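User: Please predict the structure of the protein below. I'd like the answer in structure-token form so I can feed it into my own downstream comparison script.

Assistant: Understood. Taking the following sequence of 196 residues as input:
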Amino acid sequence: MSDWQVYPPDDDTFLLLGAALALVAPGERVLEVGCGSGFILAGLASRAEVTGTDINPHALRQSRQAGVADVVRADLLCGIRGPFDTVIFNPPYLPTRPDERVNDWLEYALDGGEDGTAVIRRFAAQVGRVLAPGGRILLLVSSLSDPSRVRDIFSAQGFSCSVFSEYRMEGETLSVLVISPVEEVRRETGRQQGPS
């Protein structure tokens, strides 16, 4: 049953789930921040140990109805302990001026602040605390919120970003970024090159 106060699965959701299905290995511990309808976690539940957070109580109810038992009400990662092998986030990324804001629960899924990165900045500052060694972040970004700005935000927190997949639609390009701690990227590169 859908709820108008919960962001429904759309092109961005499907793109992010496709990336998660390609990258999440069996048995991984997966956290989805802002799990909304629970669509992504339900899609991963047969292969991974899934947990979701959302600030929206309507989203938690809908996620549980989708069969996701382990969902917690939280503002991003506040009160969440890891470690998680993969952290998934489809953040609110729409650039929103103060006069455009409306006071409802759906706003939490859409309002990215004036440049579209306000929530992404908060997430980037918190996520390293719950990420397992060798872990990764799958982040959905939009051309509306300037992906190069998003990369700079994560770089400043010690992460490296690469584009895993993209979807072009009228007036917007959606991308899934794979984000890893720089130290993990350096170690993986060293393993591939072997001893000199």
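That's the full token string. The longest strand covers residues 131-142.
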